[in-house]
Amino acid sequence: MKTIFTERLILTPWQDTEEDARGLYEYAKDPDVGPRAGWKPHESIEESSEIIRELFLPHNVWAIREKDSHRIIGSIGLENDRRREDVASREMGYSLAKNSWGRGYMTEAAKAVMDYGFIEFDLVIMAICTSPSNKRSQRVIEKCGFKYEGCQRKGYHIYDGTDRDNYVYSILREEWEDMRK
Q: Please, which residues bridge with residue 169 across strands?
């Protein structure tokens, strides 16, 4: 996994350090962040450290850092696409600190990760899912050129024990290539 530089951001692979765990905890403890993505707010730096070790390090997940301050403001990753077996596909997932919402950071990070995924993994298609109620995420997805595929009913089991619907989107390699022209 490479470090990715954008105009305002640096996407770095997560490290199993107290500094990265503290950075994750600072935004992941916010009750307005995790539940939108289906995970509970972090309760401690130790919990954030465990998430880094068990979820972020084994998968292709980057810490999103502001270029000027190097402060961690989110995460973004590409995991195996559970809906497309035997197809060169990855599913993008992300989260962003509430005080960074509305600045275009996630769209900037997502477009950079799309480039990385299609080039480095030679993807045929990239997918992304979000909750029907997460309008901010839907806006990022649309700005990045993903096309709505439909609603997967009860497609995601979330931290509170309920099952929620998923809006499923994807972008084909040729659509991504056309966007880059």
A: 128, 148
